[in-house]
Design goal:
With 501 residues, chain A is an alpha/beta fold. Chain A contains 21 helices and 18 strands. Chain B has a domain of 209 residues: MetI-like (MetI-like fold, Orthogonal Bundle). The mean pLDDT of chain B is 88. The chains are: A alpha/beta (501), B mainly alpha (305).
Chain lengths: 501, 305
């Protein structure tokens, strides 16, 4: 029996060692110059959207076309939005073979700092000059991390402004004047009338990123430093742009919470909003009168096209380009890619070839859509059912060569360009925060934020009681250290940057 | 030589047993022993590009992240408190249910109850969270709409009152698991020698006395073994239960934030989560050994090892 025990323990030890060894996927980044196009290469592409039924058919069609062009086959791997964050982390950490990986905001900058996506400056210069020209130097600089570029941004709206989208039919029916709405308080009388006439309707649907707090910060002007949860730079007229602040300690946040509380108590929000996030269902089923939305040209016609109701908008802010907008949608090449050169060639092709681009985005002609004119299409019933990428064209490459769906704004591309031109660039553009430095403090702070943020910004809790608690708890979780570290990095960047100008 | 001989004898004689153990043993080896090597990650700043061995050593930094919160005490208290609740209440309920089911001599009825009791075990906590919401929802919940008005009580906003949740969570967890854990006790009861009962009946023992003096003492060792094993998991807490069922509602954190939810909300890095996992395992390991030692002192035969 002793023998057996020894054998077992040996086996277990061996298994442990093997286990550890199997995890070592470490590999050097290399940019090979010679790319032999006679060798076929499979490109695995991960992006978030619910996988459509006809994915294989579209891939097959794309592969036929791509074989003669650059001899690659495409393996599109869409993943559900809800699972994307975890799955892409697991894939990166586990060293899975991937060639294109969609990232956004802090995820992108973090991956770049970790070097788990490769630096593509050289590749882009050599193999994707048209893409580079199309994106423009300013925009590209916004995605640089420590001076290096780690991904190809989607060519789309490069800025954001805020609007309120509301039900046109309801507004007309009860003679609600939305055109006069300039501030959040202007909404109150409208909502009061609405509640009287339509007691079963929720005046405003709110959800994460679409609350009074977000709206107020956008109205004032701020830069979220690539969507950071703990620090931001306020860029309003009366703000000091050299200071990094914690958004929750600002006066504006206090005001936002008080407003949210008042609106909640007046019954403008769904009563259980802080518990059950059902804003999407409310909007879809026609039970919500209005909601906040990030605006861009043609957004409204897209909303109208995909909804059973008639919507209109009140634009609340001017367009501005912040650090988050620059990295809001980036396609990167992970370190596990075996042939970055070919992948970059594919990106160039995808961004410049309307046939390929629209094939991936809308499916196969005459099956998933019918052409109405050269650039306008009408989706077929099959297309709506079996190849619906839910309007996520902005995740992939150049949206300026997308077909227009019938009913959408036909001048979408021109309007978008004008919109991008008009956007005011944020003074923080180009600064990337190294979040690794405060990762310990962030763990504690993250829990504090999830404890209070939703309750406060949805108006479900009394700010007079909760806000001081929130702030004192943030302090004891060392938010000040995070602000200090960020401020130091920001100062260093500003010094370096002013020297260049 | 003789040792090898004995081993081959063992294989020949008990080969069937050995085969039956294999699948379980392989699973344990694959999923419990194989990944142990990954513990090194708790002491490293893992960067995928550099691989497991190539990543930089950071000493105990990852463990610091875990203890840096001002709520450390609250979270630890919650975690242990719930584990103890679940172990005590869960064991009592499961044993009681097993005893009751055993008393139902009609096989069919007993099977029906058993199946109904078992069903919730197969539901995911995501689904259960919405079932609970159907009861506790602020506006349309059954409790606030129907049940409370019956007793003339004002509606309660369940999802912002932390004090109710220790009870709610214990209830939900036991509702889900009690049917499943009673199966083990039922199996143990089925294994009790029928002659004990016959002897008891001859001595004039009633059903209640049989249950009290025959069935329960026979279950003692299996109850002890289950207790020792659950003590090891005292720092583990089901993320599904603590994250989904309270709908991640902020005001409930004082009574619903446990180690696993804290990790889930705050830990984005492989190193942090590994460190937390190592910590839970080490504490669990020590507690299991201790519990076993205590049991061995009191009742040598009931100890696990």
């Amino acid at each position: 029996m002793i023998k057996l025990k020894k054998l077992l323990s040996l086996g277990i030890a061996a298994a442990m060692l093997l286990g550890a060894a199997a995890c070592t996927g470490g590999k050097e980044n290399k940019v090979s110059d010679g790319d032999d196009e006679s060798q076929p290469y499979e490109i695995v592409w991960l992006f978030p959207v619910a996988p459509p039924n006809d994915l294989d058919a579209v891939c097959e069609k794309a592969n036929e076309y791509l074989k003669d062009k650059i001899n690659v086959t495409l393996k599109l791997t869409p993943l559900d939005w809800g699972a994307y964050g975890t799955k892409k982390n697991n894939a990166l950490n586990g060293g899975e073979k991937m060639d294109l990986l969609w990232l956004a905001g802090g995820d992108y900058t973090y991956a770049a700092m970790q070097q788990s996506i490769i630096d593509i400056d050289e590749l882009m210069d050599k193999y994707a000059p048209k893409t580079k020209e199309m994106l423009g130097e300013d925009f590209i600089n916004g995605a640089r991390v420590d001076g290096k570029l780690y991904g190809v941004q989607a060519n789309k709206d490069k800025a954001a402004n805020y609007m309120i989208v509301y039900r046109k039919d309801i507004a007309e029916k009860y003679n609600l004047d939305m055109s006069g709405v300039k501030t959040i308080e202007d909404l109150y009388p409208v909502f009061d009338t609405l509640l009287e006439k339509e007691p079963n309707m929720v005046p405003m649907a709110i959800s994460g990123g679409k609350t009074v707090y977000d709206a107020n910060f956008c109205l004032n002007g701020y830069d979220s430093l690539c969507g950071n949860k703990y620090v931001c730079v306020m860029t309003g007229e009366n703000d000091d742009v050299s200071k990094v602040v914690c958004p929750y300690e600002t006066e504006l946040f206090k005001k936002s919470c008080e407003q949210a509380r008042e609106m909640y108590q007046r019954g403008y929000f769904f009563k259980d909003c802080a518990v059950l996030d059902n804003s999407a269902e409310l909007i879809k089923s026609g039970k919500a009168f209005c909601y906040w939305e990030q605006d861009q040209p043609s957004k409204l016609s897209e909303i109208n096209n995909s909804s059973d109701y008639e919507w209109d908008k009140v634009q609340m802010t001017d367009a501005s380009m912040s650090t988050l907008d620059c990295v809001g949608s980036v396609t990167t090449i992970p370190y596990t890619c075996e042939n970055p050169v070919r992948v970059m060639k594919f990106i160039e092709l995808f961004n410049t070839d309307p046939y390929l681009n629209n094939l991936i985005n809308f499916g196969i002609e005459d099956v998933h859509f019918n052409k109405v004119s050269d650039n306008t299409i009408k989706l077929t019933e099959k297309g709506k059912k079996d190849y619906d990428l839910q309007g996520t064209m902005w995740e992939r490459g150049n949206t300026f060569i997308n077909y227009t769906i019938e009913g959408d704004d036909p001048n979408k591309a021109e309007n978008l360009e004008a919109f991008n031109e008009s956007a005011k660039p944020s003074p923080v553009l180009g600064f990337v925060l190294d979040t690794e430095e405060y990762s310990i403090e962030a763990t504690a702070c993250s829990n504090v934020v999830s404890e209070y943020l939703r309750t406060l910004t949805y108006g479900a809790g009394d700010p007079e009681e909760l806000l001081p608690k929130f702030i004192s708890k943030l302090k004891s979780a060392k938010i000040d250290t995070i602000v200090e570290i960020s401020q130091r990095q920001y100062d260093e960047w500003r010094e370096g940057n002013n020297g260049n100008e | 030589m003789s040792k090898i001989r004995r081993f081959t004898d063992f294989l020949l004689n008990d080969g069937a047993m050995f085969l039956m153990v294999m699948p379980g043993a392989i699973l344990v080896l694959l999923f419990n022993y194989f990944p142990i090597g990954g513990i090194v990650l708790a002491f490293k700043n893992y960067a995928p590009v550099k691989g497991v061995w190539g990543s930089d050593w950071v000493g105990l930094k990852n463990f610091k992240a875990f203890f840096s919160t001002p709520d450390a005490w609250l979270i630890t208290r919650n975690t242990i408190m719930y584990s103890v609740y679940f172990i005590v209440v869960g064991t009592i309920l499961a044993v009681a249910l097993a005893l009751l089911l055993n008393e139902l001599k009609k096989g069919f009825v007993s099977k029906v109850y058993q199946t109904i009791g078992l069903l919730p075990h197969f539901l995911s906590y995501v689904i259960i969270a919405y079932l609970v919401y159907a009861f506790l929802g602020g506006e349309y919940g059954i409790m606030n709409r129907t049940v409370l008005p019956l007793f003339g009580i004002e509606p309660i906003s369940w999802y912002s009152e932390a004090k109710y949740w220790p009870f709610i969570l214990t209830f939900v967890a036991n509702w889900k698991e009690v049917g499943f854990s009673s199966v083990i006790y039922l199996a143990a009861i089925a294994g009790i020698n029928i002659e004990y009962y016959e002897a008891a009946r001859v001595d004039g023992a009633s059903r209640w006395q049989q249950m009290k003096y025959v069935t329960l003492p026979c279950l003692r060792s299996i109850i002890t073994i289950k207790l020792i094993m659950s003590v090891g998991g005292i720092l583990g807490s089901d993320l599904g239960l603590f994250y989904n069922v309270p709908m991640n509602s902020g005001p409930l954190f004082p009574t619903t934030n446990v180690l696993s939810t804290y990790m889930f909300r705050g830990m984005s890095k492989v190193g942090f989560t590994t460190a937390a996992g190592v910590y839970c395992s080490v504490v669990g390991f020590i507690l299991t050994i201790l519990a076993n030692a205590v049991v061995r002192k009191i009742d040598y035969d009931s100890a696990l090892f």
